[in-house]
Amino acid sequence: MAEREQPVTLRTRKFIRNPLLGRKQMVVDVLHPSRPNVSKDELRSKLAELYKAPKDTISVFGFRTQYGGGKSTGFALIYDSNEVMKKFEPHYRLVRYGAATKVEKASRQQRDYEWLVVFEGGRILGSSVDVIPGKQRKNRAKTVRGTAKTKAATKDKKK
Question: Is 88 exposed, middle or buried (0-12, 13-18, 19+ CB in 10 A)?
Fold first, then answer.
């Protein structure tokens, strides 16, 4: 039997209509005795069918499978429209559902370094100033032992 053909039962509880955020919110219990778990995409389509709402206005998250399997519990939000969903739903969830694109950023360490170079001590510095953030200094010092640690922390690895 195919994975999607095996029976899945949805039960909703703690149903609340939230007009200020333009949505219906509920706790969803999923009974799936013959399956390890159910995909969020499948849950969204089943909830869309159940509540007669478009699939792209439904957000499901926070699902945990009970010990022993067979039952999962999570949260669902059904928005009144796509515009309301884009206004109130966190960006990472919109990316998950394909309603938004992910913004690529440099790593936290690189962004901190750039920030330190520009605003060291509250005054604007040129980019030629060699400022090494604490985390980078600590990791460089890990590579050597003894008194060489202080030298490694300040030494720049330019070769």
Answer: middle
Please give the chain's pLDDT, 159 residues, in tens: 456 678 899 999 999 999 999 999 999 999 999 889 899 999 999 999 999 999 999 999 999 999 998 999 999 999 999 999 999 999 999 998 888 888 887 777 666 665 555 555 555 555 444 556 677 777 777 888 877 777 776 665 554
The answer to whether the CB of 14 falls within 8 A of the CB of 75 is: no
How far apart are the C-alpha atoms of 121 and 145, rounded to whole Å? 31
65/50 Cα distance (integer angstroms): 22
Largest CA distance in the chain: 70
